[in-house]
Amino acid sequence: MITAATQTPVLSVRGLEKTFTVGGALSRSRVRALGGVDLDIAPGEIVALVGESGSGKSTLARCIARLEQPSAGTFLFEGDDIMATQRRRPTRAYRSAVQMIFQDPFGSLNPVHRVEHFLERPLRLHGVTGRGPGGRAAMDRAKARLMEKVGLPAEMLERYPHELSGGQRQRVAIARALAVDPRLILADEPTSMLDVSVRIGVLNLMRALCEEQGISMLYITHDLASARYLADRIVVMFAGEFVESGNAMDLLAHPAHPYTRLLISAVPDPARRTPFDPDERARLRREVLAPTACDHGSAESPCDQTSAVFHRVGGSRDHLVRCGRYAPPADAPGTALQLSSPNDQKGAA
Q1: Region Disordered: which residues (predicted)?
Q2: Which residues, including other chains, have CB under 8 Å from residue 197's CB and lie 6 or more apart?
Q3: Is 68 strand, coil or helix?
Q4: Could you give phi then psi for residue 284, rounded to 5 degrees?
């Protein structure tokens, strides 16, 4: 895997915030969906963003895709400050470079069009092929190649979405994203509505495409098993903020934040010799929902007043956790860290 230490990150998010107004146009009620997140994704890296529903995962993806306007913060795409250079709306080049795969394969394809329409339209709009002499033949070849990439026969180009299975529709959605040669794919729970028997095939497809074409991916999911299987790195999100990050295998084997441990405790595991202690789950839930109940805080510095910064934990320099229990002594050298690609951690005072 190429890391940001050797190349400019494909995506570099800093302090991104999003607040929604609720209750009508005259309402002053606000809901914070993102609380100032930082994230780097390296070229060719697959980052899984995990957390429960409502934690802000999809909002982050929609902000990066420019389907939502962030309330604050910046993000750079391949070194370009998108919020500064494309303030009002994204350019067609950005739309081409950053593609999104949605959760619902049944709703993301218009039922009145054949499959060929979903591939031909982006190829034409972004000028990939289809113009000039021989354009029609080139277009047909391009559509057939895209279908081959996602493991579908070219004959399916003549079918309508209702004639395809859920897995086949999601493969068409992936082919549509690939049509414009993206450098970053935002996959918003792309397997959650598929039968369990076909999920592994879609995950293998996405992994192979990223490896073969060097595409980066932000994979959004609440399924820890698929995150472990697909991703290079996992970032855990809770209440609009990142709380833990690390190598996928290491993080799930040695979770440090109470919220991460609570998520893992809810996953059925036939290899677990004894059921997860319900008292332990109750304690973790109290620590997450009421930080003052955390027994790792102190009277002078309870968890809800501890500076919310990341610290390295365990034996891996890539494993970061945002939790006061891991804070160094007050007189120790500064170790606050930004959440970035594994080999590009920044020290702070």
Answers
A1: 325-349
A2: none
A3: coil
A4: -60, -40
